[in-house]
Amino acid sequence: MTHPILAAQLFTVRDYLKTTADFSDTLKKVKAIGYTAVQVSGIGPISDEDVKAVLDDTGLTCCITHVRSPWPWVDVDAIIAQHKLWNCKNIAIGAMPTSYRSDEEGFLRFAAEANQIGQKIHEAGLTFSYHNHSFEFVRFGGRTGLELLYAETDPRYMKAELDTYWVQHGGGDPALWIKKMKDRMPVVHLKDMAFLDGTQVMAEIGTGNLNWPSIIEACKDANVEWYAVEQDICRRHPLECLKISYDYLKSLGLW
Fold first, then answer.
1. Residue 113 belongs to what H/E stretch?
2. Model's pTM, two decimal places?
């Protein structure tokens, strides 16, 4: 069992990451909440060197990223070099491009490309992960698209960055899916789901309806190292959302 570490997915505060100065100021506030790690995602046109300098200055670890390059990634060597500069071991893609999603053939094509790119990343000593939404829960015969992706890729070359909200949104069981990915998921996305005015909405951890004790226990059993808190849509200031989620998770024994 690994020692879990709470991280803030910076996509949550993307509106406050447009410049290097904003990036620095926001990361200091994230650190003040109690987070010791971040997922670099949703930032403005900030140089790799400036990202590195701010991470060093704040003492925050970059545990994973979402790479924004067009898929399939062409200059994988540059992506690897960027992550080594940031001392970040884990690389992820935020979603399968829409052009792959219409049928089983597209899912299989993405899996083949991901396996190839992930092998190169693995050989460089890093990991490549896939972040799901709910569209991957479409069924192709007896299996979902998400099951297909993990069945058709090598566990060494494509790992999981499961998102609890989107698994639930797709009709899956977050805790069960986390258990399926045992030893294949360095980072999990924690996001709660509430019901407001007849609609499913994203919520701060502990304020919605997901079964967090079950999810956290599954994460521990699956040897997840980093627990990244994310809230794509916030109904209060995003930093306040991150703090509410942090305080709840801390009450469950995480830090």
1. helix 104-123
2. 0.97
